[in-house]
Amino acid sequence: MSIYLLSAIVIERPLEGRLTDALQEAGATGCTVVPVKGGSARSGQWTREG
Description:
The protein is an alpha+beta fold. The chain contains one helix and two strands, in the order αββ. The chain has one helix at residues 16-25, and strands at 38-41, 44-47. A hairpin with a 2-residue loop joins strand 1 (38-41) and strand 2 (44-47). The protein is elongated.
């Protein structure tokens, strides 16, 4: 039986390199980086443009 772990990590763009380096060092077998166009939080809706 294999056990797989799927995680979602949300960070700001400037930290992307540090995160992917850390994932590789930790033995992660892969990752996917996707752009975020917008969303919403307690302060309301937001977009990538601000």
